[in-house]
Design brief:
The protein has eleven helices and 19 strands. The protein is an alpha/beta fold. 46% of the residues are buried.
Length: 347
């Protein structure tokens, strides 16, 4: 990586205190993610906080293969990009919604020596986008947003885009526009090593499951429970604003398992050696950069940046994977790399 590459975090959390350190870190960081808060309304989860649950992906013929429904790449500036470039002084920055407590994706590394510096795979991508559009990788205003506030933050204009392990799906495409995929993952179960839970199967009967509000994990559990594909006794009522809160609930014994993206689950398992992934991933999903539905020029520009990011052999996708994710997902990145992009609109 070149000089603008963020420093890699130390591998592991150290010794027998790893579980405690992870729990303390989670408890310290999770409340900080209320910079963009949850508005009134929505459905109350067991947390007592208002939450908004993502609807299951539409099954009709109007939306299939949502990861292939984006615009073709372009370097042309349009109204959205010009408005970003015309911001004056210190405000001339790209405003991006991110996570700050997802280990190796978007998090504040307590061992980095640079207090407040965000690091991770998603953060690398944000710096790349800022450099391309504004000529400065640090011309970014980061806004930490909860999982269930990703779409409202875009729609309300609080951010230009969200780069926060956000799965592309049909329901979300009704509300925001997505880039081409930049990462492949799938839903998986995380549980204590000693737990009888074996995966996404009948062993979840009479178990309490935690998911993030507004996540595809919750939508999948809700859909499968209604369809009878999940044991009726499985309790899926526990939802939290941020995914790391589920790890805390698991550590405190308030839930029996967590369902989340395998990429995030692997990072959480790295934080706490007493838990591990159970079974195999039971969905295939793709992360994308989310933007306003009418921001066509920005979508096209981000898609061009992603093409360049994938092709850059020195400071691109693979280098970022090696720096941040190889320790938790393994050295073979082929299962995580998205397929060659397919664009639905080339006009």
């Amino acid at each position: 990586m070149n000089a603008r590459r963020l420093r890699a975090a130390p591998r592991g959390w150290g010794g027998g205190g790893a579980r405690a350190a992870a729990c303390v870190l989670a408890l310290v960081l999770a409340p900080a993610l209320t910079c963009v808060g949850t508005p009134s309304g929505g459905t109350a989860g067991t947390t007592g906080r208002p939450v908004a649950h993502a609807a299951p992906a539409r099954a009709d013929e109007e939306c299939t293969d949502p990861e292939k429904q984006t615009l073709s790449p372009s370097r042309a500036d349009g109204g959205t990009i010009e408005a970003i470039k015309n911001r004056r002084g210190e405000k001339r920055k790209l405003i991006v919604g991110v996570d700050q407590n997802s280990y190796r994706w978007g998090y504040r590394n307590p061992n980095s020596g640079e207090s407040g510096r965000l690091e991770g795979f998603d953060i690398d991508l944000v710096h790349r986008i800022a450099e391309d559009i504004l000529g400065d990788p640090d011309a970014v205003q980061f806004k930490a947003i909860p999982t269930d506030q990703r779409i409202p933050a875009i729609q309300d204009g609080r951010v230009d885009m969200v780069v926060r392990t956000m799965t592309i799906n049909c329901a979300r495409m009704e509300e925001v526009a997505f880039s081409a995929p930049y990462f492949r993952t799938g839903q998986q179960v995380l549980a204590p090593k000693s737990s009888p839970v074996e995966g996404y199967d009948g062993t979840l009967a009479n178990r309490r499951i935690c998911t993030a509000a507004g996540s595809t994990a919750y939508a999948k559990l809700e859909e499968d429970k209604k369809a009878g594909d999940l044991p009726e006794s499985t309790d899926i009522r526990t939802t939290v604003p941020n995914q790391l809160d589920c790890l805390v609930r698991l550590q405190l014994g308030e839930v029996d398992a967590v369902v989340t993206d395998a990429a995030l689950a692997a990072s959480q398992a790295a934080q706490d050696p007493t838990v591990r992934l159970k079974g195999e991933a039971f969905t295939t999903e793709y992360y994308g950069v989310a933007m306003k539905k009418d921001a066509d020029d920005l979508v096209r520009r981000v898609n061009q940046i992603l093409v360049d990011f994938r092709q850059d052999t020195e400071d691109g996708w693979q280098a970022s994977y090696d720096t941040w994710l190889s320790a938790t997902l393994g050295g073979d990145s082929s299962k995580s790399e998205p397929p060659a992009p397919v664009y639905a609109r080339k006009d």
